[in-house]
Amino acid sequence: MFDNSSDQNVKKKSTSEHSVLRQTQVSLPVNNFENRIQEIGADLLEDMHSLSSNQKEPLTDKLMSWSMNDNGFKTQLFRFVDTLPALKNSKLVHDYLKDYLFQPDVNLPAGISTALKAGRFARSAFAMTVKLQVESIAKRFIAASKPNDLLSILHGQWQNGIAFSIDLLGEECLSDDEASEYQNKYLELIQLLSQETCSWQAMTQLEVGYNHHEPRVNLSLKISSLIAKVDSINFDYTLNSLEQAIKPILISAEQNNVFINFDIESYALKNLTIKLFERCVTKYQFHAGIAIQAYLHSVEHDIQSLINTAAKYNRQFTIRLVKGAYWDYEVINAKQRGWPIPVYTKKVEVDASFERMAEKILNQTPKAVGQGGAFLALGSHNVRSISHALAYMKELGLPKNAIELQMLYGMAGTLKTAVVNKGLRLREYIPVGELLPGMAYLVRRLLENTSNESWLHAGESQSRSDQELLASPHQHSLLDEANHDTK
After folding, report:
1. What is the pTM of this model?
2. Cα separation of 77 and 133, whole Å?
């Protein structure tokens, strides 16, 4: 989800530094597979450095950089962002911003501190500037407020060699009327996009997969918006209600050659989402996909269940492997309720799980047209994770079009350009919606990308070399286990 300004994760390095990196790789005491990962990763990073060498950092990226270096500033800034849509005038914007940022644990950049203490006129001007900058950040991650406003963006990205998956933003559905409205929006979107895209130029790189065809229109939906008050305790009743709600969408998708991806949400809704997906792919012949979160302890069991369904019913579908975007919520919720924490608590454990699960899915790639199995859609901006999957594909003798890379709209522009230039299929996950209902999504993206553990933060740090960015998470996991055992 992206423009070029999002590439703050790449430090500028000279060609000679990359040559040293490659020479170092050859002498490392690692196996041939790890060497291949390092070579692919170094090549990608070199391309990214070259693409980003002349870019300037806009104010939106400066705000994110400040947030990376100060957790107090980050927390208070994003609390302010969450309230911003409800603030109707510049005085309220200024007063709330001042209340949030003038806190003991917040170290304000000098310019912001001075502006907040300025006179009335200057305060008003600064408040409006802040609001415009936050809206600018929102537009960076949320492509449009209405589907019709999106068409030119989608067509432009298609011409640049980038496919799309549309997500209609919104909060959890609380009434039958809201559920009906959500269903109608997706039915309208299927008709609009299937008609609009039929005249687009054919793109072999985006449309011809390995032993399958990729529809031009790809939509992502969440089960929490299908019916009012999804109840995972009343499992069977809720499952039946969800099927009835999604059935018209799936039938229309099948008739119009549209791909439907089931998004994964919180852990509480995970089993319902997977069971609904497994039921639907056995009943309806739509182009199907589902997101699975690598940070869950249950991820291998979840993927195996999907693999069994594909084999039993000779069905092809895509598994979108992501690391997961609800980590903070899952940890806090489990601790408050006294439950086991359902997610890995260390980044290196999540990264290692992600690589293991990528291999597991790639092993299930259908070897013939019509053969049941799962295709991998790798949802990541992490060059190490991407390089690992590409290296494993080579181990299996799979061609480039056996995998799809998926990234978020508004981020990692140079990485996108680099993978497209290498002939890989890339799809952007594109949110569409109004700023107010989309604000929760925006704040998650901001928190994700200013986390001390995030890929963007790691790349921004001048102390991190390319070798560190491409380091194997499995080696770190083994060291952690060894250190723990000696205590």
Report:
1. 0.85
2. 12
